[in-house]
Predict the structure of Prolyl-tRNA synthetase.
Amino acid sequence: MRAPIGDFDSAVPAAQAADFAGPAAEAIRAWTGAVPADQLLYVDTDPAKADTAVFVEHYGGDARDELYAASVNCVVVAAKRGGERTLAACLVPSAARLDVNGVVRRQLGARKASFAPTETAVEETGMEYGGITPIGLPEGWPVLVDAAAAELPWALIGSGRRRGKLIVPGKALAGLPGAVVLEGLGA
């Protein structure tokens, strides 16, 4: 099967991908979202090329701008209020900056919000840094989705590992457990 975006050797429904493992794979294999599971695609990629700029340069082919515009980053934030900490995932187009101290802080009702330390993000999600994805996050996590990401025909997101990416309809992001779609999350 040909991927709807990018220049990949092949794409397969993620639930059928033999080399796809971890929390995201488990969540996709148990998928009950409004978007059919066969529209959640997995592409095998080089883990050394997982960072967005390098990834787009290598896998963008003649449509690098299109692949970059479809790339959505999943950023783990830690919000604090009254001694309690809340971890949340924030999804923003790769060209946008996450509004941590404005939209995120207000949405989470926090006094302070910041990017979670790498070690915390990796330990709490069970995923690899550079591949963290909103699919398969721990139960109860808020998932803040920039409206622009939810409106994408196809979004390129992590697979939970540096090897491989997921290509999903943007509306699948809006339908994730705990998802709230917000205007201006990414500026």
Q: What stands out?
A: Residues 12-175 form a domain with the YbaK protein fold (CATH 3.90.960.10). Helices lie at 23-29, 52-59, 64-70, 100-107, 118-125, 147-150, 170-174.
